[in-house]
Amino acid sequence: MKIMVLTVSDKRTEATDESGMFIMNAVKGRYPDAQVSKSLIPNDAKMLNEKIASSISSGAEVIIITGGTGVSMRDITVDSIKFDKVLPGFGELFRHLSFTEIGSHAMMSRATLGIKGGVPIFCLPGSLNAVHLAMDKLILPEIEHVLEEVRK
Fold this sequence. Notes:
This protein is of the alpha/beta class. The protein has five helices and six strands; from the N terminus they run E-H-E-H-E-H-E-H-E-E-H. 45% of the residues lie in helices and 21% in strands. The chain has a six-stranded mixed sheet, with helices on both faces. Helix 1 links the parallel strand 1 (2-8) and strand 2 (35-41). It is globular and about 35 Å long. The two termini are 16 Å apart.
């Protein structure tokens, strides 16, 4: 499995990117043979789409993005990606699980799973707690099944 982990943030640096590092380590912990790369870019739609396109053309089978899924004007991740398909169940489940942990603040998340160019792209909040929740409860348990379905 070849996975690109992408952090979208104007505030984080490679040294302070706890969410991106957690995703990378969680994938490697569950799938030791996976090829996992990581990158950090600012909240910039053009850079985001260029990075997604280059990741897909380089053979990424899954892209996991952290950051840019909130409601501020700088949160451009979900709005910038032109998905071929969106799987609304991922965001619905994420917000449900998040609600049980943080209450009504969960409604402000735009966590999304979409398919672009045959590649599943998970868009997660930048919060480390949100990333833990998504990886532990949704992504790691289902990533192989999502890939199997996308490849049909």
